[in-house]
Amino acid sequence: MKLPKRIFPDDYFKKVNKCTSQTESLPFYIKECGYCNERKFVLGNTNNFSDILLLYPVSGVVRFTKNQTTQFIHQDNIIISACNTPLIFTRATKNWEFFYIIVRGSHAKLYYNLIRNSSSVLPGSPLNKILDYFIEAADLNFNKELYTDMRASLIIHNIFFELYNISYNILKTKAITPVQETVINQCLKYIEHNYKNDLDIDTICNEVSFSKYYFCKLFKDHMGITIHQYVSEFRVNKSKELLTYSKLSINAVAASVGYKNPLTYSRAFEKSMHMTPSEYRKNF
Hints:
By secondary structure, the chain is an alpha+beta fold. It contains eleven helices and ten strands.
C-alpha cells in the first residue's frame, strides 16, 4: 500500500481557540492545537479532567512520564490522556516533532473512556488516516466562526473513530488461541533472525507450517498490517540504527538490512519516514 504524500507545516506553532458558547455546545471542540519540536512539553499541571490530550509524534523518540511511570514513545504511537495529572514529554533524540490537540466537548470524555488504556499509548501506523486528520486540524484557522468549529468537531470525531478501531482490533486479537499466538511469535522471531536474507511470504508461511492464505489473514488480524509491511518496517527500523551509529554508506546500510537494490531501500525508507536515508542521517 502506497503512503499518501503528506505536507507538513513550514513552521512550528501553537493555536488557541477563542471558544464561543456555540462552540462549547458541540460534541467535540478544539481548545488548543499545535505542531512543535520542544525539548520539553508539559501539560496537566492544572489537573483539568475536561481536557483530553491527543498527541501524534512524527519523528524522533520522547520520554513520556505520567503518574511517575516513564516510557519511550516512538513515531506514529499516539498518546491519548486526560489532563488530570501532569503529562511530561522530554525529547530523547536530537529532534522530536509532534502534532498535539487538546479536546473538549459534550462527548469528549465518553469517547475517551471507550478508548483509554493503562499506558495512554496506542500503536499507530503511517498507513492509517490519523496523521492526516492531525494535519487537517493544524491547518484550521480559528476565527470564532461556527463553521470552523463544526469542521473541527468532525475531525476530532474521525480521530476518535480511528483510535477506537485500533482499540477494538487489539481487544479482538486478545481472543487469539494459544496455538495461533505461538505461530505469530514464531513468525516474528523468524523475521528478526532472518531480515538480512531473502524473505518472501511463501518462505515465512513454510517456516510456520501454515497455509499462505490463512496465515496472512491471521497475521494481519493480529498485527494490524500485512507480513510484507511488517518486514519492510522492521528493516527500515534496523537501518535507522545503522544510519545513526555507523559510518556505512547508504548502499551498505541497504544491504545490511536485506535490500539487494539500494533504490528499493530508499523508497521503502521514504515511505515510512517521509525523508530519505541521507536526510535522516543528517538530522539524527
